[in-house]
Amino acid sequence: MEPINELIAVRKEKEKILREMGIDTYPQERWAYITTEEILKRFGSFSEKELEAMNEQVSIAGRIMSFRDFGKSAFIHIQDRAGKVQIYSRKDTLKTPDYTIFKKFDIGDIIGVKGRVFKTKTGELTVLAEEIKLLTKSLRPLPEKWHGLKDVEERYRKRYLDLIVTPRVKDIFIKRAKIIDFIREYLKERSFLEVETPMMHIIPGGAVAKPFVTHHNALGIDLYLRIAPELYLKRLIVGGLERVFEINRNFRNEGISVKHNPEFTMLEFYWAYATYEDLMEFTEEMISSLVFKLFNSYKVSYNEKEIDFSRPWKRLTMMDALKEFGGVDIESLLKSDKLLEFAKELGMESPEKEKKGKLITKIFEDICESHLIQPTFITDYPVEVSPLAKKSKTNPELTERFELYISGMEVANGFNELNDPEDQKSRFLEQLKEKEEGASMDEDYIVALEYGLPPTAGEGIGIDRLTMLLTNSPSIREVILFPLLRP
User: Fold this and answer.
1) Higher-confidence residue: 207 or 377?
2) How far apart are the C-alpha atoms of 19 and 101, rounded to whole Å?
3) Within 10 Å of residue 227's Cβ, how many Cβ atoms?
4) What is the pLDDT, as a whole number, of residue 148?
5) Which of 40, 113, 190, 287 is deepest in the core (most CB within 10 A)?
6) What is the pLDDT of residue 437?
C-alpha cells in the first residue's frame, strides 16, 4: 500500500473510533467565533500579566495546521480566513471533550475552540483551550511541501489545497477582489451603470477571435460563447444609457500561455460624448489611484522590475514606437517596397499573405512590446486591425485607437467607436471576405447604428493581466482560481 493510502486508512480508522465514542465527526452546527486577526488586534498589545488579570474568554474556529504533542499537553495552530493563532490544550484544563478524544484529532481537522487568552513565555498570543469541538474530520493529510515548480500544475488542479497551505495564494485572490471592487465603485461614482449582457451569442462579434460553439436543443440552433460584449454594450448606448460597463467573462477558443486563458475576465465600458483621449486620461487616473490605494505608493515591483504608475504616462504612436525601440522607419520601407523583405528577416511566416496594416502591427508586436515596461499608450493603429474603430481625421489608413502596455503586456484597448453604419457594414464585409476568425455580419447591429449611436468612446481592460501586475504573478494561471488545464 502506498504511504498516502496508509495515512488515509489510519485517519478513517480514527474517524470510526470517534464515532463509536459518540463523537459526531461532521456536525451541522453554528459556531459563533471571532477571527484570529481580531484576537491579535484586541489582545496583541497586552502583557502576560494584563491578559491574566483580564481573564478574557474567546471562541474561535479553524483548521488545525500544526500539532505538537507533549503527552499531557499539546500546542496546535489553527488557521481561519484571516490568519493563524496558537492553541494550548492541557489534560487538566480541557473540560470537553475528554483529552483522549482530543488526542485523536489530526492536522487538517476543522475545530471550534473556547478558552482564555494568554501569552506564552516567548510572547506568543495563545488560547488556553477549555472546550474543543470537532467540526469536520479530515480524512486526507495535508501536503507537507506544496511549493516548487514540480507541483505547479497540481497547485492549479487542487486550488483548495493551494489556498490552505500557501498564504500568498489567498492574498492574491483577496487583492483581486479589492481590485474589482475599486474599479466597480470608481465607475459607479462617475455615473456609469453596471449592466449584464448575454454570454451566449447567436452571432459571434466584438473582437477578432475564434469562438467556442455550443448547441441549444429547444431552438435547434448553434450558439457561441461570447468573445466580447462590445456590440451589445453599444446597443445600450444607442438606447440612451450613455455610460455603461460590464465586468464579466469572455471566451476565446485559442491557445493557453502565461498571458492567455481561454476563459478570462474583462472590464468593458462605453462613454457617450467622450473621445479616446478622454479614455486615456480616465484610465491613467483610475489605475494610478487603484495602485496608490493598494500600496500607498505609485511604484510596484513586477518581474524584478519597478513599475512607476505615477502620472503622466508615456504616449507614442505605433510608428514612433517602431523608430524608438527598433530604429525602424516603416514609411521608408513602404516607399522602397522592402516591408515584406524586412518582415521575412524578422522570421515571420508568409508575410506576403498579410495586408499592410496587419503586417505593420505584427512587426510592432515583435519589435516593441518587450520594451514597453512602464505604462505606455500606443496610438494610431491601422484600420485593418481595428474593424470597430473610427478612422483618423488626418490619415484614413489609421484609427483613433490606443492600447495600453505595461511590462510588455497589452492591458487595455480603447478607441473612438465607429458609428457610421455604411462604413461599419463595409468593414464587416471585408472581415468576411478575409475569412477572419470570429468575423460575422451582425445585421441588427447595423440597424442599431442606423438609429444613431452618439459619438462614443469605449475601452476594455483585462482584469486578469492587471491583477498579475499588481500581485507580482508571472502567469495568468496564478490569478485565476480555476484555470483551464489539460485533463
Assistant:
1) 377
2) 11
3) 23
4) 41
5) 287
6) 65
Per-residue confidence (pLDDT) for residue 400, from 0 to 100: 98
Nearest Cα residue to 388 out of 413, 356, 354? 413
pLDDT (tens digit per residue) in 27-62: 998 998 899 999 999 999 999 999 999 999 999 999
With beta carbons less than 8 A apart as the criterion, state whether 452 and 272 touch: no
Dihedral in degrees, nearest 10, Cα atoms 14, 17, 21, 27:
50
What's the Cα-to-Cα distance from 413 to each of 18, 24, 461, rounded to whole Å?
59, 56, 7
**Regarding predicted confidence, which is higher, 232 or 354?**
232
Question: What is this structure's pTM?
Answer: 0.93
Give the fold, CATH level 3, of 3-136.
OB fold (Dihydrolipoamide Acetyltransferase, E2P) (2.40.50)
Q: Which residue matches cell numbers 481537522? A: 109
Burial 206-221 (b: 16+ CB within 10 A, else e): bbbbbbeeeeeeeeee
- CATH 2.40.50.140 in the chain, residues? 3-136
- Tens of pLDDT, residue by residue over 221-278, are 999 999 999 999 999 999 999 999 999 999 999 989 999 999 999 999 999 999 999 9
What does the alpha-carbon distance between residue 478 and residue 258 come to, in Å, rounded to a whole number?
9
Q: Which of 371, 334, 381 is nearest to 208 (CA)?
A: 381
Cα 418 to Cα 271, 455, 477: the distances in Å are: 13, 8, 34
CATH fold group of domain 165-313+374-479: BirA Bifunctional Protein; domain 2 (3.30.930)
pLDDT confidence of residue 341: 87
Instruction: Give CATH 3.30.930.10 domain extents, the chain.
Output: 165-313+374-479
Residue 397 CB contacts under 8 Å (≥ 6 apart), including other chains: 357, 382, 383
What is the pLDDT of the chain when averaged over all its residues? 94
- Calpha distance 202→198 (Å, rounded): 10
8 A C-beta contact, residue 72 and residue 91? yes
Q: How far apart are CA 444 and CA 45, in angstroms?
A: 66
